[in-house]
Design a protein that fits this description.
Layout (H helix, E strand, L loop, with lengths): L2 H16 L3 H10 L5 E6 L15 E8 L2 H12 L5 E5 L12 E7 L8 H11 E12 L5 H17 L9 H7 L2 E10 L5 H4 E9 L1
Parallel strand pairs: 1-2, 1-4, 2-3, 4-5
Antiparallel strand pairs: 5-7, 6-7
The structure holds S-adenosylmethionine.
S-adenosylmethionine binds next to strand 2.
């Protein structure tokens, strides 16, 4: 088994547990039902969003992730999902999709982990229809300077331990720089602590 695959296989139970904690699931329950039409879920992971799509609004979901062990679990969840789901091993930086073919990009807790976020955001713009929407629920760089400084200090230690997750990405700024207009954005600490991990970006953006 190649090293990366072994690492993903070992990480899978912890990731699946943390990503399914009650407060996290409540954010998913607010966000996922907003998806419409053909949906791209980059970094679909273990498929924790799949049961939450609204079958009346969603035509089809395409989930992409580089981690085969996560996709194995997502495949089990896809079997009971209320919508049709296609799962593909791949990366957000090189999407195997046509230009303007997607109505919704749904990004949850993945903008922190994609190695080349700029390239991925350019791909999201390319595959989204001009009327399309990016829905997001992410953790990232806190507004409080003291917390952001702590995130910068911890990040080099945290990233290798947490499968490439970055603590300090300013998701809203990255979206704007990549040519998205923010339509709606809520920022909050999901939990009182640890503040470095729980500053959230929740909202939607449209290609400019
Ligand atoms: C914290 S998990 C979140 C998974 C899922 N989106 C969720 O909400 O439960 C981050 C995910 O990003 C995926 N990921 C890492 N690099 C990626 C890339 N280049 N393209 C797409 N997904 C990537 C990981 O494999 C992992 O499944």
């Amino acid at each position: 088994m190649p090293f990366r695959r072994l690492q993903d296989w070992l990480m899978r139970p912890a990731l699946d547990h943390v990503c399914a904690l009650g407060p996290v699931m409540r954010q998913r329950q607010r966000l996922v039902p907003q998806a419409e039409g053909v949906v791209l879920e980059p970094g679909v992971g273990t498929g924790l969003n799949l049961s939450l799509y609204d079958a009346a609004c969603v035509k089809h979901v395409i989930g992409i992730d580089p981690a085969a062990p996560f996709l194995d679990l997502a495949r089990q969840r896809a079997e009971t999902a209320p919508v049709s789901v296609e799962l593909v091993e791949g990366t957000a930086e090189a999407l195997p999709l046509e230009d303007g073919s997607v109505d919704t990009v749904l990004l949850t807790y993945t903008g922190c982990s994609i190695p080349d976020l700029e390239a991925a955001l350019a791909e999201f713009r390319r595959v989204l229809k001009p009327s399309g929407r990016l829905l997001l629920c992410e953790h990232g760089r806190a507004a409080e300077p003291r917390v952001a400084r702590t995130q910068d200090l911890l990040n080099p230690l945290w990233r290798p331990l947490a499968g490439g997750c970055n603590l300090n990405r300013d998701i809203a700024e990255r979206l704007k720089d990549a040519g998205f207009d923010i339509e709606h954005m809520e920022n909050f600490y999901l939990l009182p602590r640890p503040k470095s991990l729980t500053w959230h970006y929740f909202g939607s953006a449209r290609p400019r």
